[in-house]
Each structure stands twice: as C-alpha cells, then as structure tokens.
Amino acid sequence: MRVTTRVTAAIAGCGMALGMVSSPLMAQDKEPIRIGVMASLSGAFAQMGADGVDGVKLAVEEFGGEINGRPVKLFIEDSAMDPSVAVEKTRALVNRDGAQVVLGPLSGAAGLAVKKGAGEFPDATIIVAGSAAEDITMRGVAPNVFRTSYTGAQPTFPLGDYAYDQGYRKVAIVAEDYAFPYAQVGGFMKTFCARGGSVPKKIWVPIGTSDYSSAVAQIPPDVDALFVALGGTDAVNFIRQMDDFGLLDQMDILGGTVTVDGTQLASIGPLMEGVVSGSIMSGQLENDAYKSLDRKFGELRGRPPSLFVENYYRAAKWALLALEDVDGNVEDQEALRKELLQTSFQAPGSFVSFDRYHNVVPDVYLNRVEKVNGEWRNVPIRTYSRVSQFWTFDPEQYQAAPAYDRDTPSCP
Amino acid sequence: MHTEIRTSLNERLADTARRGNRRDVTTAAVLMALAVLYPLLGTTFQLQLLTSGLITGMVAMSFSLLAGFGGMVSLAQMAFYGMAAYVVGIGGHDMGLPALLTVPLAVLSAAVLAGLFGLIAVRSSGIYFLIMTLALLQMFFGVAMQWQSVTGGYNGVAGIQAPEVAGFSLGDAAPLYLVTVIVAAASYLGLRWLLRTPFGLTLQGIRDRPERMRALGFRVQLHRWLLMVLSGVIAGLAGVLGVYYHGVVSPDVAGLTASLIVVLSALVGGVSSLVGGLIGGILVTVLISVVSYLMQQWFGTSHYWTVVGLIFVVVVKNFPNGIFGVDARTRRVLERVLTRWTGAGSGDGARAPAGNGTSPQTR
C-alpha cells in the first residue's frame, strides 16, 4: 500500500509540477514588467554568471524596482554554456514566465543560437549581455536582438595596434579552443598583421586544461611577445606553469579580455605584473557610474565588480532607461526597440551607444597590471574611445570576410 | 481433482493474459488520446517541455533497449543522436538539401555510426563495454569540436529551420509536439513488437545466458550488433526531432551532461521496460525545469542540480528498478490495483487472489 501511495504521489507530483510551470499571472495593481535573465549559473562559468545576476539586481534596485509605477519582476535561468539549453531557457523565460525583455546569455555559442532562433520570439526583446560571438550583430541583424557587451574582437583591436607600437613584430598565441578566443585572437591579428606584424604560431588548448606543458613547449623561442587569451582558472594555471618553466620572465605577455580579471589578480597578481590586456573595463575608472557600482557591489560581495557584473548591470540599465522613456509600455515592442537603439548613457565601463547593427560602441582600455595601494589592479594606460565592432575597417568589407576560427585570419 | 484445478488454472492464466492485453490496448489508446488532445489545453511552453521530454525519452528508450534487453550499458547513445542532428543541420542548413532527403539520411547515418561503434564495442561486455562506449562518445565529441570546417566547431550549426508537414511548420510548438508523440509511439510499438518475435526472445536469452545461447548455435555477436544498430536508429530519430526542436546542434549534444541525463531518465523510468525510458525522459525533463524554476523563485539560488541529485538518490533508493520497472513490490501492487479496476466490469473474475501472479515472467 505504501508503494501505491508513493506511485500516486509521484504521478500527482508530476501533474502538479506541470501545473506550476504555468504559474498564473500575479494579480497586482499594475501588471509587472517581466525581465528574464539568462547566465551560465552552473559549471565552469558559474561565478561569472552569478556576478552577472548581481549586476542586473543592482540596476533594478537603482530604479527602485519599478518603471512608471509598474514593478519589475526578474526571472533567472541557467543557460549552462550549452546552445541547446540556452534556446530551451529562452523559451521558458518567454513562453512560461512571459518575459518581454530577456537579458543574456553569457557564452558565445549560446548567444548565436538564440540570435538565429530569435524569430520565434516576436514579442520579446533579447539583449545579449555577455555573449561575444560577432555574428550576433553582424552578417544579418535580428530586429529583436541587441548586444550591450562587446564582440570578441572589439577589445583586442587596439591591443594589436599597441603591440606593434611596442616594437613587437612576432607574437605567438595561446588561447582556448572556442569561438570567444577565436574572435579575441582575430581582432588582435587583424590590426597587428595589418601593420606588418606576424603570428608564427597559434596554440589552441581545450577549455579547462590543467597541464600546459605541451603548450609551453610549442612556444617558438624567437617571438617578441605572447598573447594569452585564456579565461578563469585556465589563465591562472598557464601563467603559473610558465613561471615554473622559467619562461615568464623571458617574454612579454599580452592578455585577452578575461585573462586578467579581479579573480586572477587576487591569486597570481605578482606573476602578472606588467601584463597588458584589452578590455571594456578597468580596475581604476574615475567616472561616477563606476564608483557607484564599485561601492554598491563592494557592499554586497566585498570585492570590486568583475567584467560580468558590469556587463549585465549595463544591459539591465540600458533596458530600464529605454523602458522609462517609453513610460514602461513594454507591450509596444516596436517602440521599445526603437528607443533602445537611440538610448546612450554613461555606463560604469564607459559612455555607450548602439551602432546601426544593434551592437554597442564602447571605449576600450588597455590595462597594465600594477600594484596600487598594496593591491594588484588593472590600471588603464591607454584609452581608445568609441571603438566600433568593425574597428576602422569598412563594415561591408569586414562582414564579407569569413568569420574568425582557428585558422582565420592567418599571417605566419 | 488435479486436472480440474489445472484446467481452471490454465483458463485463469489465459484469462489474465487476455485481460492483460486488453488492458494494455485500453491504456495505450487512452494515453495516446490524452497526448494527442493535450495541445488543446496546454500552453506553448508545456508542449515544448513535453516535446523535449519525449525526445530525451526516446534516447533513453534506445539506452534501455540495449541495457535492459541486451545487457549492454551504452553511454554512446547521444553520439547517434548527435550524428543525426549534425546530418540534418549540415545537410539542411549549410547545404540546403530538402528535409525529405536529409531526414532519412540522418537516420541512416546514425545507424551506420552505431554499426561502426558496434563493431568495436560488442566484443566487450559489462564495465568494459560501458567504458568503450564512453570513449567512442568522447571521440564523437572531439570530431564535432575539431572538424570545424564541416561541423562549425564549438558553435555548431545554428538557425536550422524546421520543415513543413502537411502545411504546418514543425518550427511551431504544437505540430512538432504531435509529430514527436507519433514518432515516439511508433518507435515504442515497433520495438515492443520486435522484442516479442523470436529475434527479441533470442536477445533476451543472450542477455541472461550468452554462453548457453552460443552453445545452442545462436550468433551472439551478430545479435548484439544488430541491437546496437537498432538503438542507433531510435536515437537517430530522436536526433532529427531534437535538432528541429532546438534549431541548433553543437558538440554539447554529445557532452557528458546530455548523456547522463539520458542514463538518469532510463534509470528513473526503469531500464528493463521500454515505456519506462519514455516516461523517465518526460519526468526528468520536467523535474529539471521545475526545480530550476522553483529554486530561483523560492530561494533565489541556482543550485538546482543539487536538489535534482537528491531527488534521484531518493528515487533510486526506493525504486531500484525504476518507477516503471519490474520491481516485485511495485508490480504486485500495480497488478492488484489494475486487476481490481479492470476486473470490476467482468464480474466474478475479479476474485482472483491478488499477489500470487508475480512469478518472474520477463525477469
């Protein structure tokens, strides 16, 4: 008999679960504005995703949790770095929770899948807050997809320029083997090779590699510098092992956008001294928006805001500003998208606006790791203002070129 | 006296079997009717969730087919799924071939891949077979990731358009759901039929006593290989539906998470029953979705995998053979309940004492 009860309970539970999935609209004075947030909340990128969610919450708080009297209700889902999952979660947010604005996702392939399937969601605006795959805002623009973060190449265009200025002529590359580093490397090479530099060797390693001895062994001894486009613990492990092999002092290191973030600096700051990286953020910015985010996030988590906090904060704030301008009328998606495209503001990273391909135009900082007041920080040494996703190249020609991958571009 | 008892026993057994068949047909008809009518009631999202669950369930069914009826625990099922998905993606999206061509080709490719894997794997058994299939799955993942010019590498193939069937686009939730229900039901019925043929009975014999079957002159390896190919076809069908459902295929389909979800679905549903895989797929998919939603809404946290894991521990502990498995206790209770229900109409036949018809029939 106990078993029957259990079976019945299981079946009832399943039924209830299906029922709960379609949670009824909350009866409130004013219909809430429903914002879905998608970030990688499990696996290797869980911390970055969690940072992003914090960023969104801080932005909503700033607006008092409401727009024009309509409460803002957040729905958060884990896109798990997997494009199939991201598509399912977007459906959950839009079809189940009734989200009219979706912020996210974080990873490149996921963003691309959501953009290409965005025709399925005519009544929702998707604001990509982290995914850096170029084709989200290139080679075809989706009317309901915007990107507020950056393309993978955007922050590394200036780095290639800088590397040539520094007198480097031959640079080897160590990067993770997936779309984001392809674009980071692509941006760097596009400018570096255009000026006459060469990249004799590109070493692609799988995400989550812990032993870099074979990668280190492949670095040609005659290069002037090494461009490291690794993220998270990969960067930490690689730099540590470069040091173990005694190579760290013999070579200048250039870093990708997520190579030198607060977390890495906290663990291996001294080893990273002098590393120059390209980013849309910096550890030492003087504008009020940054200081306010720094203070609020510091109160919340006791550390400076990471790139992902800023990215998601920026996306949420952008959406909320546009919503404010349309008096919270999120149902008129046409008007909202039009307003969004025209909105520009001072984000913590820099002043930002959209180009006509729905991609953000931010400032890019070249940061050098230095010790400031006893703490290792990214200090901006150069600022390139208003960097387009096409750098200074012609948009048509740029889009006609093949997308970045392991072998493109090439200048050995 | 003895003969009397025997005849009455025989009659009763035959009667039970007839009732069992009638019961199965009725249950199936009711379930199908409910499933087909569900789009009238359900929301878009529920249909999508059920579609996803059924697709996972089909892969789980292909897993159960190998594990429960061939004694081969395979982690490679998602590779066959992925193969079909990639063929549809590359053929349909990148090369612009019509679905009428890519879909059969996709299922065929999945079968061929399963055949190739089978050639290597059927020689081993037990834990070695499991590890072998895991290695093959990783190989598929590696190729999907590395062979960038064809597979699109890490990004995979995105923006795959679903074809139209009888004027309805499979890109819409309801038509795809209905097609999925039909394909899943047809696969289930087909396999069920096949397992009752001499071929199917031979397979079960091989599972239980491979040496004896070999001694009897059955070609054990060949049977195993054929079963592997068959499971590849089922997983391939799921892959076709899956790629139209997601609109994207990436190496993650053959990742460990996806493969483990399949295994969990099969375990929850019961490895020794085919329908268990289907139901398990739906249960697990709904469970993951609901737990992740509720954890966010109630506790504001994303640690839903922890809760999902705990639920699995409870399920596996209490239903070691899965919710629909041939667990003696569950079976006894289910039989008693069902006999009472169906027996109520046929008058005194219902007095058959419950609880003694539990001698192991199919294991």
UniProtKB/TrEMBL annotation, chain A:
Record keywords, A-Z: Signal
Keyword RNA-binding on entry: no
Domain Leucine-binding protein, chain residue ranges per copy: 32-370
Record field: transmembrane: none
Protein name (Swiss-Prot/TrEMBL): Leucine-binding protein domain-containing protein
Organism lineage string: unclassified sequences, metagenomes, ecological metagenomes
